[in-house]
Amino acid sequence: MTAFLLRRLLSAIAVLFVLSVVVYFLFYLMPGDPAVLVCGKRCGASELAQVRHAMGLDRSIVAQFWTFLSSLVLGHRYDTGVGSTWCSAPCLGMSFQQNEPVTQMLMNYAPVDVSLAIGAAVLWLGLGIGLGLFAALRPNGLRDRATTFVALAFSATPLFVLALLLLVVFCVWLQVLPFPTYVPFTQNPGQWFQNLLLPWFAIALVMAGGYLRLTRAGVLESLGQDHIRTLRAYGYSERRVVLRHAVRGALPTLATMAAMDIGSVLAGAVFTESMFDLPGLGKLVVDSAKNVDLPVVTGVTLLAGFLIIAANAVADVLYAVLDPRVRLA
Predict the structure, then answer these.
(1) How many angstroms separate the CA atoms of 102 and 92, rounded?
(2) What is the pLDDT of residue 82?
């Protein structure tokens, strides 16, 4: 198991390094001068030179890239023109337009995405696995087909359409929920929960269909194995056989898929946050792209890549724990 974990860790580090190189050269070596974007067209030559020096653009490309990489591990002190600001590791750069370290900005916005992903994951896992077991208990029957049809219909619905329908139904027609406005959990847990219900359900209804199909397929495959037939011969009830034994066959696939999906939701919540007007990383990257705030866009891109890579690494570990044969691969 130790060798397996070491291989996965080294692989994740290598992918992160390649991603850092690609992101750096994509955003910082593209045509155009980032100093002009920060300083504005009205800046004179002396002011522009000061901005370029503060951003480190007056050094060689190799020196700039080394500072970029070392800042991730050691941190970096940035000259803001009127003083200096220390950016603690992992330092993802400095937003000179906002005069704030990118890492601090991400920490301010990330709680929205974490709340969104965790709450939605609890819902889609509960709905998907529960409905999958419900369908597998009576395969090819009316409730199996009806449950599968409804779940697939929600899965095929675009997220922004489903979000709009939920807002219209629950906030406009029924008026049982307020329009979502993010409230930190530490400030008011009740309002935090109430305002995130619709975003949670919007994501969960789209995601649950895949888990229903995986659970149903895994349970039905396990029900055909020899040890299940032996349990039935000993007089175990069908419900007990399914819930305690057959569902284990679907756990490795479900665990790995859940880890990757949570990482994807954390990394790409732009549509959800835009529809529900939530101040998360998706809104931050959209606003930063409009303002051409390249350090922030770069930081969010790296964070999104890290979350996806970390989610895949966690998925590999979970699969190896649940299925020891994978460790030998």
Answers:
(1) 6
(2) 66
